[in-house]
Amino acid sequence: MPQPKSANRAGNSGKSTPTRMLNRGKEKEEEDTQSQEQEELRRLQEEQQKMLLLKQEQEKAELARLEALEEARRESQLKWTEDRLTSIKNKAENIARDARAHAVWERYMRCDGTPDPTVLTEINTYINLTKDSKTNDIAHILEEAKLIYALIYELNFLLDDTPPEDITPEQESQYKNTILALQDLLLQRYGDGTLKILREAIYEADTESGNLQKLVRGEHEIIMLWGNLNKNPRFKSFTFESENFTFELPKPLAMAEIAIRNLKIRHDFYSHQCSTFHAKPKKPKAPESVAPAVVEDVLEGTVDDSTQESSERRPSQNPDEKRLSIAEGRKSVQSEAADSSKASEEKDANAENEAVENEETQDLVIDDDGDIGDLDDDILDEDVIDLRQYHQLGGVFHVELVKLPPQAKTINGWTLCQVIDEPMTTVEYPSEAFAPKQSSSRAASAKEEGHDSESATKAQISEQTQPSVVITIKLPSDVMFFEEPQVAKWDEQELHWKTTGINDTEYNDETRTLSFKSRNFGTFCLMQDLHVNMPFQQWELRPLGPNHCLLTITAAIAEAFIEIKGTSCRLQAPEDPEAVSSELRHLYEKWMKPDEIQKLLRIAGVNIFPAVDSDKFVSVQNKDVDLDDIYDQMALMSSAVAFTWSKWNSSVTKNQLVFQAAPWLGHGDTRKKWEPPTDQYVAPVPPPPKLTEEDWSVFMIDGRRSHKLAISEYDDTFNSKICVDGEYHSDIIHAITETPFPSRPNLPTREMVDDRISSSDSLFVYTVMGLIKATKCLTYS
Predict the structure, then answer these.
(1) How far apart are CA 639 and CA 765, in angstroms?
(2) Average pLDDT, stretch 452-460?
């Protein structure tokens, strides 16, 4: 039988236990709590959304207020800045114009017997008389060279300093042709002096070697002469110890009547003749919708205008036409002014040449689609040096093989000398004259085998029979080379620096010596990348006092400290003695004009001044803003506000520009200077305050507006939000001076900054303008 159920189980089967009721109560409480939390969260989210919308509306209203405020005062701010900058530029230009007029008057009143290079009759007379001079003593010629160099520098200064509107194309062409004629005269006089020394070589021969070993040093040149008087077949090489110049004489020349001359000059007579010396302006492209016929019409006008401009301002790109124009220019300087009929004939001939050139140019610039291409680049051979990318350093050295004139002989007490009335003659090498002579049997066999004379001649002047000349030079001690220099040789036919025939180059960085082989003698130079120090790592413009500031450029390799005071500037030596460059000791602490320091730094190998087309060779931050106006305003504040680069400049668009600024009045030159020890007690001078990282503020130029950003240079992310209590301004000068300065004891007040800016000298501001514009620091860092 089945067992009966217990009483408890029977009694609890239809009722809830207390435990279940308790669990249900907890679940209900949890549901109520979750519902309340969700309701609270929803309410908070709604409140946050309302607060966010309210904040956005407030920000939008504040932004509208700031924009309206900037728009309301825009005209007055821009007018104040424009009037101040225009006044500064006008004053500086008037002073420069008066200085040029005074220089012209001083030149006119000079009574020292020197010719005026701008007067054609005077310079022609001087050139002709100097050419016909019978005084060929080398000391006299070196004195003549000083005057010729002075005339060349005077003409170059006129070409560089005279504004385009103050010089006519005819004057510019005349000055350039006069420079070419003076350069030819200088080289001819060097040749006359060299020939006189060679004719008297027997009297100055070295007692040990029996050869001529003479060195002549002038103010602008060094002449090294070696004459093969002894004709020793075992002779191999010779070194001019004082100049560290060594040549290895090829064996076929050991018994020849030859001499080797190395004429080293600092002035470059050749680079300005290259078609790549000047930047080529870009030609605008025609719209896509223009029909082919219209494109041809547009092209004709464009090419005609560009051809006319290029003929006035830069040399022709065609080497043949360039050589012809240079030759004609050199002749024209030495002749009187042509009559009107001859001038009209030349004008017609030039017009025909331009028409032919235009037709050739049209074939080059029209592509398959009928668009107008760019004419800004030359198509160069691989061995041609592009002077837009490289520049010559350390001067030019002419290593020439010249004919040794007959020497005097003493017979029975009589001195006999053969007189030859001819200029110094260069000897071609390699050539057939130094080819090994073939025996009659070999010549007959070669004739029987059918070898032509041309192939036989080539075999006789091969590298094995007439080896290359080996030249070893030491790099100049006053030029900085940041990489192994490239050797180039001047091509007289194509008017280019080339690397043809130069091989086996070896560079010793420790001894700064360079050795190379050249297939020919000729004119050589050393080349370095023009943009080896670009782009810059950073830059800074910091005030040192009233009308006194310091521009620091930390380039890719070098670092330059340019101090600007008044209208002069100088290159500061670094505080760290180990950072002082021995190659720049001749420039340190010497006051000069801004144009002069730019020129001397380039000559010394430190090029921190980009050219107009340097962006083709350097990765830069191109900005679609008025950079010249920004540089002008920076210069106006350079006595009271410090500027430096910002990493955020690469994080914004092309229409925006970001940099750092800080109010600063400067405390003079605070560099540590060495002083001799003394027994007298000198009280320690407390160090002047310095700018700290917290003193800098980040400013941005955004289209028409300028303002201070809320971020700092050391934040992790970029944000273009305006700073607290900041306002939009129409230009950077008002954005800096009218934005509240950081409250720090080492920083000046707004009133002090305004007083310093208003009292800045116009010429000082104009000087800073030119220097920072030359560095293009805002885009090349």
Answers:
(1) 9
(2) 54
